[in-house]
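Retro notes - structure team

What went well: the batch runner handled both jobs without manual restarts.
What didn't: labels got mixed up in the shared folder, which is why I'm recording both outputs here explicitly, each with its sequence directly above its tokens.

Job 1
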Amino acid sequence: MERRTLLRAAVLGGTSIAFGGTLWRGAAYAAPAQPGAGPYGALGAPDANGIRLPSGFTSRVVARSGQRVPGTSYTWHNAPDGGACYADGSGWIYVSNSEISPSGGASAVRFSSTGTVTSAYRILSGTRTNCAGGKTPWDTWLSCEEVDRGYVYETDPWGVKAAVRRDAMGRFKHEAAAADPVRGVVYLTEDVTDGCFYRFRPTTWGDLSSGTLEVMVAGTGTSGPVTWTRVPDPSGATATRNQVSGAKRFNGGEGCYYADDTCWFTTKGDNRVWQYDAAAQTIELAYDDSLVTGGSAPLTGVDNVTGTASGDLFVAEDGGTMEICLITPDDVVAPFLRVDGQSASEITGPAFSPDGRRLYFSSQRGTSGSSSGGITYEVTGPFRT
């Protein structure tokens, strides 16, 4: 999935400046995504669940906060947030965080091969403000605490093994995580206005009990080469973002997703989607709402992000118009769905079933605007795979 493979010269003051080993620019060296017609067509009228979808797609409610998950005796958690799916024989599991404090944690819903809910259960308890996280290649869920000096907890989506706190991954206001099996690292975002972008290099890949936490070091622009420097004290006695001179700042790190040598992550403070080329060790903008031309930006309040095998990125909005927008491999951004009547909420936890045919997500506060009003949905249809 090579979304951008050609570097373009920037023209500054009438002079063409080539991309060099130490050059940083204020403008991206490949054009960020622009609005256009999406691959699935226009959104239709709201369905019975208040979801606007393209033709051929349908939605259903999987769970509601404070209520039993249909077909089970388990009560779904408040403020559902980051999520991921896991293959489970011929079925699958959807894991979801709870962004409340105290007693946030995470829960899971198990589905049969036909999509029928067969069980639901708790996989993490006794933690705080579990916002996003990430899936590991060895099928665990990294649940991240979005609090000062928060931890990462490695959890079992099947709920059999006890969750383990991973201190070596650093203590800071964690948001999301994405595993890069090629380089054997886990990328981490930090949700503060002057936050950083990190990677954790475990001593042994597949074992997160020990390793080295590193922070991205780069220039002040939006594109160019980067390096990584070890964070001296991951315990955060001094804030991890302030320990390394030259650490690059990001305005409110949110979602994080890795595929094919690229890690995409979002920053809500400036409505940007960033693209880190892990092979070339360069960074650029995949999307910036302030650089949209010819009309209003279709994607604002960027938050959680996931992707498909076709190369489409699906970016959820925190507020905005309560949409999940997609960014195609040819750099077109367009709405995929919209949730009506829930303007006091945010969309969280987008994740695809293992076969890529079902999309799960939550409206964190639902129609009530309260953490107790969360709703978790499933969308089925002809997704590009």
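Job 2
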Amino acid sequence: MYSEKVMDHFENPRNVGKLEDANAVGEVGNATCGDIMKIYMKIENGIIEDVSFKTFGCGAAIATSSMATELVKGKTVEEALQLTNKAVMEALDGLPPAKVHCSVLAEQAIHAALKDYSEKTGIDLGLPESVHEFDCASFHKSMNEENKK
């Protein structure tokens, strides 16, 4: 059901915990599905020097959070903005269809942290206001409709 990489990032998550000197924090989640992700970043001169996370959720939520932090650590803010849920899933060698929303949450948590950084520094990153919102039920409904096509 889960790839070896998903299991590895679930059993041995990277970058876990609160980053005390973070200057960018993003939190997304949905009470309906029960997954809540909080991402902390330390950004210096446009580079994500350090990143960590705290996630409340299933194994896939923890694995996608862990992988997302690995994918943006050491990258520029611009590179991190390009992170997609598909890139997170590919890096984990896939997720079951019912767990794809976890990769979307990971992408959105990264974007929420970058939005926070943008607001604190006044640097316009072009992120929409709705970056903190995620509707798990609507996501699953749209995935089901897409799969019927």
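One thing worth noting from job 2: The first strand starts at residue 24 and ends at 30.
We'll revisit the folder naming next retro.
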